[in-house]
Structures are given as structure tokens and as C-alpha cells.
Amino acid sequence: MTAIHSLLNWLAGPGLEAVLIIIGSVLLARLVAWVGSKITDRIDARATGGDALVRSEAAKHRHSLTQVLTWSAIVLIYAIAIFFVLDRLGVPVTGLVAPATVLGVGLGFGAQRIVADVLAGFFIITERQYGFGDVVAISVPGADKPAEGTVEDVTLRVTRVRSANGEVVTVPNGQIVKVVNLSRDWARAVIDVPVPANADVNHVNELLREVGRNAFGDPSLRPLLLDPPSVMGVETLGLDQVNVRLVARTLPGKQFEVGRALRARIVQAFREEGMHVPSPTSDDGRTIGLATEPAQGNVR
Length: 300
Prior knowledge:
The chain is α+β, with helices and mostly antiparallel strands and 300 residues long. It has six helices and nine strands.
């Protein structure tokens, strides 16, 4: 009876306190996660007012920073809760300092990659290399091609990118060797238009300028263009055809949409003039479509 009485007293005292600490930490962590989600939703709502608008660099940074702070706060809450629970359970926390030091050294050697991921993530956030909503191409060692897509999540340890096919690619921050940001500040749609070698290049240039002026005046494309598309002239020469380059500065991430719209307008304009647009060929003779180069962004 004495043992049962002691157990009941312990459950009513330190045991109950430990349970309350656990429940309180879980509720507090969920509250922090909910507040962080509301803040990021408000940032996105203010930064994106429609399909033609994109997030500003400050909004991207605020979104990523909010995610990191939320994650760090949750980890801190659980860490403090563990120490309080151990204290209520009668475990001497001060006596765990020496074993924790040894364990920390062991984990330091065994978890060097995790430490490298966290440090890399810290510099990614503080240097604003990329953020939520950016279109990036991330290169990692051993990969045949970079991971390309839209950044959906940036934490201190990993970056999650959703590809054009809907696949989610998770990349440890410490493994990133190069990042090409395709949506930093502004983007550029570069279109190489193949024309027959015997065509009047001056007439083609004027035709492309007219296409650019019409596109810049179109209400559906005008919000996406920073200035009227410009004709750079003949870019490459071939035996049967030449490539004339058209360049358009666009809002971040909108270069692909603008490029598709301009190619459709170019084909229509050439047809109205009775001109044939040949299929461009690569150096090995393979036929390719109207070429659009990706916009060049910041490289990490």
C-alpha cells in the first residue's frame, strides 16, 4: 500500500507535471506551425495578385525565412520540453552533461553531412540565393542533369523542388554545388527564328520587330513584358538557313509563357507574308523545333 500510495503521489505531482509539459509542448509546437502557415499564406496572398504577377524577391525571402524560423522554433520547443520532462522524472540533467558531450562529439563525426546541410541552408537563406516560388536548376555531385523546377520549400537542411512533371525532388543543401536561378529579378526569352538563307534578312528583321511591337501592345502579354522585344539580328549562318534572334525581357518565371506566345505570333506572321519557316537543325543534322533558350539567372 505504501508503494501504491507513493506512486499515486508521484503521478499526482511530478508525473502529472511531465504529462502536462508534453501536452503543452505539442500544443505550442502546433500553434507555432499554424501561425507560421498563416504568415506564409499572407505573404503569398500579398505577393501574388493574379496569374500575370509574380512574387517579389523580398516576398520570396520572407516566405523562406518564416519557414526556417518556424522549424527552428518547433525544434527549440521540443528540446526545452525534453529537459523539463527529464527534470520532473528525477533524472539529473547536470549529470548528463559529460555523456552528452561524448555523444555530441560522436554525432559530430558521424553527422558531418547534416552539419554541412544546415550551414549551407543558413547561407542560402541569409544570402537570398533563392526562395519559395523561384524557378531553379540545382546541380549536385554524381547527377547526370540538374534538378529543375519550382522551389516549394527551403529549410536549413533540404530544398524541395517540384519539376514540370509534378515530381518533388528533395536536395540536401550541403550537396548543392551550383544553382541557376531562372527567376531572379527578371528573366529573358531568347528565340532563334530559322529563315531560308536566300530570304531578305532586313525584311525578316522588320517583320520580327512588328511582332514584338504587337506583342508589347497586347493586353494579355503587356503585363508580362518589361520592355518591347528586340531583334538582335542574324545569330548563326548555315548553308540552307540562318537564325535570326529575338529577345524579350519578362517578369521572373514568365519567359517560357512569353516564348510560346511569341513563337505562335512569329509563325502566324510568316504565314501571312507567304514565308516558310524551316525546321532548324543541330550540328549533327537532327531536326529541332523553334529554339528558345532558357533565361540566365544568378549562379551560386
